[in-house]
Amino acid sequence: MDDEIRKKILALLEQHRIMTIATIRPDGWPQATTVGYVSKGLVLYFLCGLDSQKAANLALDDRVSLTIDDDASELMAITGLSMAARAKLVLDPVEQDEVLHMLPLKYPQQTKLPVSMPTRNDVRIFRVTPTVISVLDYSKGFGHTDLVVC
């Protein structure tokens, strides 16, 4: 991966905080849901409920597809990322606490939460490691993507 595309990916990950992630249900149907995320380099983390359908799906198959983007005001300003990745349950308490600390930092304008932040016992935390990243940038041409194999 060249330095320019890596910087573009990291900038997109930093400027956004919401992704749509698709997991595979036991019946084979994809399930897409919107979740908040934090990132550390190219690795993403998200939380979900202990008994969520996402957690159940990932216990059976760790493959995911995801998108990160926003609603551009002009057609040729569309940018975003899509990824094929693997999502693994984070079991290390130190890593779990680091992720829980990082999440509120994505919302610097929010000075107080209406509820307490969950603890590592309240949620499942997943580490998402990309295998393929597609970088969408319409400023380079309609539907232009750069494909990066990780």
3D structure, described in words:
- The protein has 150 residues and is an alpha+beta fold.
- It has three helices and eight strands, in the order H-E-E-E-E-H-E-E-H-E-E.
- It has helices at 3-15, 53-60, 93-105, and strands at residues 18-24, 30-36, 38-40, 43-49, 63-69, 79-89, 123-137, 145-149.
- Strands 1, 2, 3, 4, 5, 6, 7 and 8 form an eight-stranded antiparallel beta sheet that branches.
- A hairpin with a 7-residue loop joins strand 7 and strand 8 (145-149).
- The relative contact order is 0.21.
Topology (SSEs and partners):
Elements: H1 3-15, E1 18-24, E2 30-36, E3 38-40, E4 43-49, H2 53-60, E5 63-69, E6 79-89, H3 93-105, E7 123-137, E8 145-149
Antiparallel strand pairs: 1-2, 1-5, 3-4, 4-7, 5-6, 6-7, 7-8
Number of helices: 3
Major beta-sheet overview: 8 strands, antiparallel
- The topology string of helices and strands comes to HEEEEHEEHEE
Helix/strand-derived category reads alpha+beta
What level of helicity do the residues show?
10-25%
The tally of strands reads 8
Shape descriptor reads globular
Low-confidence segments, ≥5 residues, pLDDT <50?
none
Cα radius of gyration in angstroms: 16 Å
Q: How confident overall, as mean pLDDT?
A: 93
Question: What's the end-to-end separation, in Å?
Answer: 8 Å
β-strand percent reads 35-45%
InterPro entries: F420H2_bilvrd_red/Heme_oxyg (IPR052019), Pyridox_Oxase_N (IPR011576), Split_barrel_FMN-bd (IPR012349)
Keywords: Oxidoreductase
Protein name: Pyridoxamine 5'-phosphate oxidase N-terminal domain-containing protein
Pfam family, one: PNPOx_N
